[in-house]
Structures are given as C-alpha cells and as structure tokens.
Hints:
By secondary structure, this protein is of the alpha+beta class. The chain folds into two domains: 23-242, P-loop containing nucleotide triphosphate hydrolases (Rossmann fold); 247-379, CATH 2.40.50.140. Helix content is 20%, strand content 33%. Strands 6-7-8-3-9-10 form a six-stranded mixed beta sheet, sandwiched between helices. Strands 15-19-16-17-18 form a five-stranded antiparallel beta sheet, with no helix packed on it. Helix 3 (129-137) packs across helix 4 and helix 4 (153-165) runs parallel beside helix 5 (183-200). One of its GO terms (molecular function) is ATP hydrolysis activity.
Amino acid sequence: MNSSAPSAAPVADRPAGDAVPRLALRGLGHAYEGRRVVDDVSAEVAPGEILCLLGPSGCGKSTTLRIAAGVERQDRGEVWLDGACVSDAARHAPPEARGVGLVFQDFALFPHLTVAENVGFGIPRAERSRAEALLSRVGLEGYGPKYPHQLSGGEQQRVALARALAPRPRVMLMDEPFSGLDKRLRDEVRDESLSLLKAEGAGVLLVTHEPEEAMRMADRIALMRDGRIVQVGAPYHIYNHPADLRAAAFFSDLNVIRARARDRQTETPFGRFLTPGLEDGAEVEIVIRPQHLKIDADVGAGAPHPSIANGLPARGRVERARFMGSESLIEVRMEYDGSRLRATVPGAWLPQQGAGLWLSLRRDRCFLFPAGGAAAGHSAAT
C-alpha cells in the first residue's frame, strides 16, 4: 500500500457525538510478511491524558505508535486527530502534516546543531524564542549554546522533549522514552516531562513494556497481547480487576491454586470457593498475590490455628526464606496437597527451613479463572 498518498486528499470530519479526542485509533490492522502484528486495535486519547500501550516485546505496541505517527500505514482501520481523519483506505497524511510530536529512546538529536538549534529545528524563525522558554521549562536554562555530546543522558532526553514540544503538537507519541536512563534519573525526568505535557494540553500515547512504569505514568493503560488490546482502564482497575490470568501475571508475581469444580464449588487448602457457572470437573485457577497471604507462626504440631479472621487457614513448612530489601519472601510447602506458595512480609523475617507456619488469605484479593485464563475472572470473595 502506498504510504505517500497525496496530502491534498479530502479530510473527513469526525462523526458528531462524544467529546472530540486528541487521537482516535479505530479498528487498526497491520501485517508483516503475512503475520498480523496489529489486529483490530481501537483507542482514544483525550486532551491532557496519558494513555500507555503496555505489553511484552513483539505484541504490536510500537507498530501501533508508528501507525499513529504516519511512519507506517495500516492495511485496515482509521487514524483521527482532533476530529479529522488523517489516514484510512482513501487518504494518508504524512508524519510532517499530522502535527504530532515524536520522542524515542535514542533521543535522535542532531549532533552538529546546538541545543537551541535542535529545539528550534522545524519551527518558524519568528517562534525561535520559544526554544529558550521551553529549555527553561525543562530545567535547562542557559544550555542553548551547548552541543548534545556535552550533555548527560537525562539532559539529552529533556532537549528531545523540548524539541518535540516546540511546534505545539496536539498529540505526543513516545516509544520507551525513558528506558535508557538509570532509575533515579528516569523517575525525575519522567515525572517532570509528563507534568509539562499535561500542562501543554497534549494527548500522550506512550509505549512501555514495564508495568511499574505504566502504573506510575498513565491515566489509563491499554494492555496489549499478540497484536490486540485485551484490557483498557485506569491503573487501579487494571491491577485489581485483571481480564485474565495472563493480565494479572503481567503486573506481579502470583500464587496459582489449581483445583476442580464440584457442585459449583471447589476445595482448596483454604477451604471451599464458590465457582458459579462452571461445570463439574472443570479446572479452576484461584490466583492470589504473595503480599495478600498472611503468615502466623505455628503453635505446635496438631494445634489449632490461633486466628481464623481471614477464613480457613492452612498449614505448611518453610522451604526457603530470603530478604529482598524492603520485604522478605517466604516459600512454603503446603501440607494439604504438597503445593508451594510464596508470601511476602514487610522488613526482615527469615524463619528456619522446615519451620511450621499457618497461611491464610483475603478472599476479596483472590481472582478466580477457568484453567487457561481464557475468560474474565472475578473476585473470589464468596
């Protein structure tokens, strides 16, 4: 498909209805050598909103970003900017005609231009004073005469951001923009950069493969897998209401308790869980994160558990305990079925191998999925 359709092609108006988003992707599809890497992707970014495309390498998130930028052309679907269609089957505006900003991991600064010249590149000469104003806003006042090789990685990233903001883009597209920085610097530059973008009113579509970064940056997260968006929502919702087992596992370590449904319930080391809607014999996966398992010390072989505030407890023995910095990770072999569960506790606590323990769990922090995680799960607080 030709990627340089005439820029004079007619521009379609966005259908009337909801508030006009800065960026709208509708039913995007794209294939490489017969393999579909973007499959029916739809998303919207509002003014001042940060939407993160989150997913593992190869899931299609960077290709989606390149389609939004106009660097790649989709083989199906539409791209809309501020209510105007810029790419569909009949038209395809080139990147320079879209009014979007691009920031990538490698910064892509011009080494032979000064910092001020980099920021002012591509904007009218009459607006070059904006370069110094933007440098001041990203904490680089007075850096205009310097060259990129004289700057640190974090300073180069700020210059790249200022250059992308100089033309006043309606949409900012960012592909792993902070991953090349060390953690301390990454947190500082990221937070400052995104605050500036929000203040400018730009809609931000940002690609990352790091769940923690997405949780920290995004107003909403679009979780991608195998070319499709499998779940969209605020970070709190995505984390606490995962669409399936793989979605839950992408954000944190998990314990998975496997069982079979019988009479609309299933037996576990922690008692019965209701499994409505599942046929007898269906495999069930009950998921809980390590931080939601509660540990009590054993009070002697055969003795009852001292507290059942969180439901029926289960006994096990310590297989390994490791100090992880702010918390300790305890691996426990359960007596009920020989399964191994992991629990975390704040601070340093390292019980001896073989020591007996009681584990209990919060059912409102559990997720129940059919085996394989194909269907949406639900809280097991029943």
